[in-house]
Predict the structure.
Amino acid sequence: MTGFLNLLKPPGMSSHDMISAARRILGVKRIGHAGTLDPAAAGVLPVAVGQSARLLEYLELADKSYRAEILFGVTTDSGDDTGTILARGEDSAPEEAELRAALASLTGKIRQTPPAHSAVKINGRRAYDLVRSGEKVDIPSRRVHIKAMELVCRREHSALIDVDCSKGTYIRSLIESIGEGLGRCATMGFLLRTRVGDFRLAEAMTLEELAESGGAALLAPETMLGHMRRYELSPSRRRAFRNGLSTGVRTLSEEGDYCVFSEGAFLGIGRFTQASGEITPVKVIQQEAGA
């Protein structure tokens, strides 16, 4: 049993809880997820089963989309409404034109600092574990790409926004930056992840639906890696690739990882380097999805 699942995580469950439930439903041991969602958040949770778990690192590279609620009037230590309030201020939402201008100013490539209450690792330990143990947390800023950000609606004390962003983006930090740009206290309310690469909310299934479908719910891994480049390998080199041997190529010029296919069959992930002029297997899938 191998493939991906597009699961819908409800509020109140951790990503780990979802994996444990899916493991029981499918009766498999090898299973993992990409892109942790906070327990209070909801939305798309990509899950890999069997050999496909070896491909999770490539899902982490995919762009993501969110719908988020901005709550005006408070800032918290966690960056969302579950944290301890640090400051209070004007709680009415700015005018629509001000909101749109603030969103536009943060669209593009920006630097942001992940929240202290996050899963970012510092010297091998999660930031939130350091905070809970009373240790000081100093997280370096990182460059992220906010590809699009739109105002969905403005309410009396809040606003809803849609965000398309690169991997590594923290919506809690983004909302704090929006508040700073408006001269307001702001924190994140509800968060819904609507997309991770080719995993979309409209096709996500609940655990109850997974229990009804079982293994039939598994998606072929190659169908969910559309954010990666593709290379078609000669059928004569198919066995060589699966045996871990490199193949010289003339049609590639851009270095990096590729999804490797041969006559429509997904073989795994290969890495092309210009220095060698070869594509080398880095993740080999020995069976076709569902085989």
User: Anything to note?
Assistant: The two ends are 7 Å apart (CA to CA).
